[in-house]
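Blackboard transcription, Thursday session:
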Amino acid sequence: MTIPCSNLDDLLLDGTPQSMQLAAQHAAGCPACAETLESWNDISATAGSMRTTWTSDLLWPRIERRLVEDRRSRLSGQARLPVLHSVRRVAAAMLLTVGLGGTMWYALREQAHEAAFDRRIIQSSALDEVEKAENAHVAAIAKLEGLAETRLEETETPLMVSYKEKLMLLDDAIAECEAAVDRNRQNAHLRKQLLAMYSDKQQTLEDVLREDTHVSTP
Amino acid sequence: MFRLRNQALLALLFLFLVPIAHAEHNSSDDESRYETDYSHTTHYSGGGVTIDHRFGDLTVRTHSASNVITKAKIRSSDPEIGKQIRITATESASGVIIRTIFPQIHRRGGSLSYSVDMTVYVPQNAPVLARNQFGSTDVRGLRAASTIENKQGAIRVSEGRAAHTISNAFGAIEVTDNTGDVTITNANGSIKVRQIAGSAMITNRFGSVSVTDVDRDATIHNANGSITALDIAGSLKVVNAFGSVKASTIRGSVDVTTRNARVELSNVNGSAIVRNSFGGVVAQNISGNLTVTAQNSKVDGVTIGGNAKVETTFAGINLQSVGGLASLKATNGSIVAMDIGGALTAENQFGSVRAERIRGSAEVRSANGSITLQDINGNVKVRTSFGLAFINGVTGSVDVQNENGAISVEGLRGSGCHPVVLRTSFSSIKLALPATGGYTLNARTSFGRVNSALPITTTTIGNDTLVGTIGRGGCRIDLTTSNGNINIERE
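(Written on the board underneath:)
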């Protein structure tokens, strides 16, 4: 069997009789490798001559005791530690879940309560918006009333009479609602109702202005 | 390791505390949130349950117990005001009375606010009188005649098993699934009624009305709001103005009085009467008679099982497929009548008349409009002034008097002898006759000629008169004009 020089180190490190035989065969035809093999054999011979032995009565019992302890601890660790770890993990996860869930539920319930409250009693910031919208309607109504006044007074068609009646009903209802709002300013239903009636009145006045004056008479 | 564990615990604590702190912060940052619950049980030993409520929603439910349970949530922006709001539930000989009492508030224009949402559980068979204002009212499952009133808030009534009276103003009303009659009044709010095993009497103003699936009669009075009625097992009576009326699938009769709005009727098993002005009328699939009295309204009728009597002004009439007689009058409007099962009477001015496939006689009075009659299975009588009278296909006699319009008659195919009398003044007359017929002819024109494609045996010829016979003679033909030709053609 032919081996390359680069494998000589591997054969020497392997150290088995077969490896050493192969290395010797190769070194026989390779002066460089023969030198390396010679050095290796010298080192091995020197190391062998340096070997020594002594006896101790205490060392082995200590080693044996330590081995027994290690085995015991390993056995008990295998039996208990993983169980303990998994129980703790599950408990921790459950605690975390319950805790977070409870906290979230509490927070959501509070928010729902607040939202329900806000649906009945509107807060100041929203009230500003509502009043802004109401004021816009009131301004538009005032302007439209000025324009529609003549038409409503002069025209006596059934439709105009009907519009007049509707406007009167709206005015009464608006007055009633405004009086209630005066003492219950942030009541959401009242504000919505008032806004709807303002809108209805504005629409009615716009209809009056849009209406032709030649509508039927019965 | 120790540090890592501590950090994890702190993070967990943070996760717990942040939402709580957030919630606490929200509830405490604004001290103007007062909210409390009220609950009270009152023994019920008969009589009615009266509820007088305001400024909040009212919910009424039934239960099988013999007591009245009142639950409420009181909310206020001012704890002092909130604590002063009281709810009383008292028992008396006449029943249970529940009231929401609000404190007198003398401060005006401030930010005081309050609201009370109330739920009342009443015995199933207790009659209820529920009044509310400035809040919606929701009632379900009442089994005794009850009255529900509201103002400026919606009303919803469902699953009732008795007659109910419901009234509202400036709020919608919705009534669903009631066994028993319902009487509903509203103003400035819509009304929606469905599934009523009983009659429905509805009054509204300035709001729409929608009625569906009523087992008995429905009566609807409205003004300035549309009306829709579908699937009414009894008769339907509607009075409206300035709002459209739409009714379909009515098993009884329909009576509609309205103005300035369109009326649409379809699938009516009984008769239909419509009075309208300034709005179109459309009637389809009316099994009984159709009577329309309208002004300035176009009238369309399709598939009328009985007789049709239609009068309108300044708009036309279009009728198709009428089982019985048709009497039509359209002043200043055209008339179209097709497939009439009985006799046709049509009268108009300033509009044309067109009638086809009339299985009875046809009588038309018109002026200033052309008249076209085709396939008339009976006699024809026409009186007109300034329009062409064109008649084609008649089985009976023909009598046409025109003044300033031409007359054209053809398709005389009746068996037996039927006289033909055609008169006009300032126009021509054209008559087509079958060659096999026998006629006694009297033709007269002052400034025109008499032309005949059929041989005439003359007995008298004057300057303006031709008298004779066609064929064997017999049937009377009078043709008279003053300033026009008379043409007799062979068919």
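Lecturer's comment: DSSP finds two helices and 47 strands in chain B.
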